[in-house]
Amino acid sequence: MKINDLIKIIGWELINPFVLKRKRNKIYDFPSTLSGINIGCGIHNPSNWLGVDGGFTHYLIHKIPKGMYKLFFSGQKMVTNYTFDEYYKLSKSIQLVHHELKYGLPFKDNSIPNIYSSHFLEHLFRADAKKLLEQCYRVLARGGTMRICVPSIEYEIDCMQEAIEKYKTKNSDDIQQFITSDTVGFNSVYSDHRYMYDYKRLSEVLNDIGFINLRECKYREGDLPDVAIIDTREGLIIECSK
Predict the structure, then answer these.
(1) Of 3.40.50.10490, 3.30.70.890, 3.40.50.150, 1.20.58.1120, which CATH number belongs to 3-241?
(2) What is the per-residue burial (b if ≥16 Cβ within 10 Å, else e) of 152-166?
(3) Cα distance from N-terminal residue to C-terminal residue, the chain
(4) Which residue among 78, 133, 135, 229 is least crowded, i.e. fewest CB within 10 A of its CB?
């Protein structure tokens, strides 16, 4: 086993769950100067939004010296997208509540003006995703807006069909991404997709919970504040309100 995998296992399976469990009942006051919360934000979070994420790297980066963190960074997937200095600057600058979302949302009822989440919900099993959305409804203020972005299952199916057609012409390259995996080493529980959505399925869940004024939106267009900044990935996008 590589040393980086050992570090990740110790961090994700031992240290991080212990820290998150100790804080599971803590309730945070939402700063009135911010626009809303960004659930499962990773390192992409505008300065006027409060991120909520239980990632081990977020906890680690604020607890150990920069030099030690650089050793940890070298074994992460982020090395293909960022230099260390870019990643470190982004991670240190975000406003973040380090919280395990399976414990719910650590805020008072009707206290959050707006909610955003991008490419996180699909990493939860269907029942867990509904529980999180119920928590979103609980903390969202009356009249507030929630914007959810997930990968579109319809888009993925179109890509599969295109890959199948290429396979029929003896080109097996594109089909590989759907039938094989290149994952090596340790993965966290949030690494893989657990449930995918189309508009009908996601809107049914939101309606059942009580959200109103559902509408499908285009990338970087909608009623959510800062939508042109906070949207960083395309997909199936739904806005709704309470």
Answers:
(1) 3.40.50.150
(2) bbeeeeeeeeebeee
(3) 49
(4) 229
pTM of the entire structure? 0.92
In the chain, domain spans: 3-241
Q: Residue 185 — left, alpha, or beta (φ > 0 → left; ψ -120 to 50 → alpha)?
A: left
